[in-house]
Amino acid sequence: MGATAGSMDPDAGSSENAQRWARFIATCLIGGTVIGVSLLGLHLGIPHQPSLKIWRRKKKPVRVYMDGCFDMMHYGHCNALRQARALGDQLVVGVVSDAEIIANKGPPVTPLNERMIMVSAVKWVDEVIPDAPYAITEDFMRKLFDEYKIDYIIHGDDPCVLPDGTDAYALAKKAGRYKQIKRTEGVSSTDIVGRMLLCVRERSISDTQNHSSLQRQFSHGHSQKLDDSGSRNGTRVSHFLPTSRRIVQFSNGKGPGPDARIVYIDGAFDLFHAGHVEILKHARAMGDFLLVGIHTDLNVSANRGAHRPIMNLHERSLSVLACRYVDEVIIGAPWEVSKDMITTFNISLVVHGTVAEINDFQKKEGNPYAVPISMGIFKILDSPLDITTTTIIRRIVSNHEAYQKRNEKKANSERRYYDDKAYILGD
């Protein structure tokens, strides 16, 4: 009996040893796997914090810089900013000071505060630097690289020359941090000034002669044909050829959401200026989606005179489309806001500013806003700035001698630039 109690079952012992051995093997395998993964991870740098920092540095956004006067800002300026933004992830824009413009070109038409409003409103601009220098100096370039973390300095393929005839971007090119974009053909501030001068009527004979001479200089000698009534149409100066691709490039490409509050505002938006920007900003704040109607050239001429608009329909449409507060435009909107139009575009509110070229619409027969007024969806907005297209034209006319000298100075600088370049190349 004792022998029976003290004996061990050989099968049971063998089974227990096998289980212990299996557990030992499993422990070794698991431990080896953990050690192997850890070593592999250290080799690849996956959990290593410094390696993560290196990876993040590679993902740093590319910041590009573009500067300019942006005087009488138009769709050509906007297209330049669009192209510049496409060369990086963030676009920083320097707006040249009034003093620098006066010293290098002549008096600006629009002061710095208005030019800042215009540039800041362009939807491709991420940051704006006021009072930028006209020329990229060594100190300012270093500030751009160190303080603003700029990777490249951008400019158009047209020459930008200093009064002494030298290239304003020579240092940036020498540093290897310069990139070039294509200039938008068919528009310039100089040509627009020429169109504006065509709007001036009932001048004395001597003034008319001066005006004609200045107009030729500003529009590079392009002659203006008279229509049957003997009047001149400033829009004929335009050499802009609109394409569907350019319109798509300027468009947001997104429609309103199903429950969006759509606000509608219309107008000529001729010589797009800071006053337009501020009322559009105000209008956009009234809803979720801002729809802007751009009146046809024919309607503008019929209501504002034969010499209006200065910019044609497509030029005006692109300027408005470039504004960050605008979601969509109607190119060639009807003069009257109809019930069908309100239904088609699901318009919730129609607005109009207190400052406009024509503001007696409610006193006239055929009020263009009669339908939205009757529906209770019309609102007058206080315009933040007292600026109209006529304001800009008056600035030009009152300072025509200064602008004549400004244009001559620019022409002389460019002539010296090309002469020097030809001499260097041996032409």
TrEMBL record:
Its EC number is 2.7.7.14. Pfam families: CTP_transf_like (PF01467). The keyword Phosphoprotein does not apply. Keywords: Lipid biosynthesis, Lipid metabolism, Membrane, Nucleotidyltransferase, Phospholipid biosynthesis, Phospholipid metabolism, Transferase, Transmembrane, Transmembrane helix. Residues 210-235 are annotated as: Disordered. Residues 65-194, 264-367 form the Cytidyltransferase-like domain. It catalyses: phosphoethanolamine + CTP + H(+) = CDP-ethanolamine + diphosphate. Residues 210-221 have a biased composition (Polar residues). One of its GO terms (molecular function) is ethanolamine-phosphate cytidylyltransferase activity. The chain crosses the membrane at residues 24-46. CDD domains: CCT, ECT. GO terms for biological process: phosphatidylethanolamine biosynthetic process. Pathway: Lipid metabolism; Phospholipid metabolism; phosphatidylethanolamine biosynthesis; phosphatidylethanolamine from ethanolamine: step 2/3. The keyword RNA-binding does not apply. It is an enzyme of class 2 (transferase). GO terms for cellular component: cytoplasm. NCBIfam families: cyt_tran_rel (TIGR00125). Belongs to the cytidylyltransferase family. This is Ethanolamine-phosphate cytidylyltransferase. The lineage of its organism: Eukaryota, Viridiplantae, Streptophyta, Embryophyta, Tracheophyta.
